[in-house]
Amino acid sequence: MADLRGKVALVTGSTSGIGLGIAHALAAAGADIVMNGFGDADTIARTRQELATAHGVRVAYAGADISDPDAVAGMVAEAEAELGRLDILVNNAGIQFVAPIESFPVAQWQRVIGINLTGAFLAMQAAIPGMKARGWGRIVNIASAHGLVASAQKSAYVAAKHGLVGLTKVAALELANDGITCNAICPGWVLTPLVEVQVKARAEAAGVSVEEAKRAMLTEKQAMARFTTPEQIGATAVFLCSEGAATITGSSISVDGGWVAQ
User: Taking the complete model, does pTM exceed 0.85, yes or no?
Assistant: First the structure.
């Protein structure tokens, strides 16, 4: 387990799902956390308090729109002002839209690219100067198996995640001798509340059990008929922030049950 006491981590899209799992894992390793994401204000306040109480760390919240350059720059500046520094950036915020290319709405294309790719670029651009000044930083981009392979009807998402993998490599080269690493995690199917809803809908549509629907969903893509959990993605992020990973940079770490091995 990495010892991240004294470090501050910003995790975008961390009010639920994978991002919240990552925030818990980093906090368990001692990092103070800046949460980001949308949702009900009271629910976010409770989640923030639960995170702080469970791990004995400081937890701030910024509701910045990840696709807005000024909002992202303000979020990083606010994190540095409120918690004193920003050492770890996890670009997790993302959205999905599914349609064939010929009928894919341009507004949805721009929205997916804006949040999934441009938002990560904006956060990196804002966070890197402080990391350079301190001589230490960890950037973890949550890409996807779709950052390495494609699926039909997901043109914007696949383009954004492939772009995020490429951006990761460029940052790794630029920052190689500044004490800063940049890596991507590429999850396969992760059992989040959103995916659980999809599984139940699929089971009802097919007239099968939830367990049968889960297995069918998994084995369409993965060799392993098992979901990854947000906590496992969090553990991978913590490792990438550890001293053991100090020379791992520019890598795409697949946590996907064998999806891209096929």
Answer: yes
